[in-house]
Write the structure tokens for this entry.
Amino acid sequence: MEYNVHTLPNGIRLLHVPSASPISHACIVINSGSRDEADDKSGLAHFIEHLIFKRTEKRTTNQILNRLESVGADLNAYTTKEYTCIHASFLNPYLDRTLELFNDIVFHSTFPEDEMEKEKSVILDEIASYLDQPEEAIYDDFEDLIFAGNALGRNILGSSESVMSITRADIFKFLAFKYRTSEIVVAVLGNYSFNRAKAVFTKHYADIAENTPSITRTPPKKVRPRAIVEQKPIQQVHAVLGAQAYSLHHEYKTGLLLLNNFLGGNGMSSVLNLQIREKHGIAYTIESSYSPLSDTGLFTIYFGTDKEKVDKAWMLINRELKKIKDKSLSPIQLQKAKQKLIGQIALGEENRIGLIISMAKSLLDYGFVDSLQTVFNKIEAVSSDALADIANEVLDEENLSSLSFFPIS
């Protein structure tokens, strides 16, 4: 896909993607997330993401929320382990309004004490709600197991204790050291010329002071594999199996994306879904996932089932993993797996807000954005031998840990 990049003297970059649609999409992505927090301030990045919608130097909460919603636009935000993202979808005439609002909430929020106290209560409720969903909570606990001793293992929401301890001074310190202008991308997908987008971008971001403090992220250490079973007040067994995997920059990243999609990725035709759910009727949900990060990654397999069926589920899963390690995919299997992933990626391009956010992250991570054809070429280049090597490394029993939540007997 055609794109343009413009970098201001302060380091903030514009990513411009032309589109003929009457609907535009924009985001501001900051290369800063929960892994960048101090050990005793977990949840701070997510807390800031909540608070930027509360008050700025010139706007109240209602004025912030109505600035785009009053013209039918959609405004939202989220925090991950490594990013903070604010995004919006809007009619084409409102580009200036959108980029100005992004500027205001990111760089001019005031974080008043009264709003902080109210939002702490909201986040405590969010934490409690999250813990009530074992299929979600188990992933966080598993990450804590796999990334033990590293900030990547912490819950993005933080804990009740850490959230309550956050002060206004903590917020401004985090912004000063973690919101680096050289690691911020403002991305726009819409029916604008590059000059038009650049003019609006420059108008609102050229005056931001350059801020490029030195920052390092500590890579996680390899951990000794463990199998942990916990009892919870739940009805079903929930289980996760997995290990650390390849980073964003690893040569085998594309191969693992392909392997994951074949094994338990999107769609009902994955190997695990066909064998565990469709053939044996054991698990309502079974899936695998691969999340590459800047210096590591995480591969997991999740399933939920009845207590009486869990042993058979493990047996069937291990059988499928052994198959994929012991025998390379046939040329037909490999080509079908590639066609499936390529098709899913192509269809994903229709999610325009997801596309522009993904492109902004790519610019942050690599300094460029691969064309769709380049992505397809990388997938087509994966060999069955490479997939076998990946499977034997990532799915090695000596590396895999597991976490299971069992109903209280």
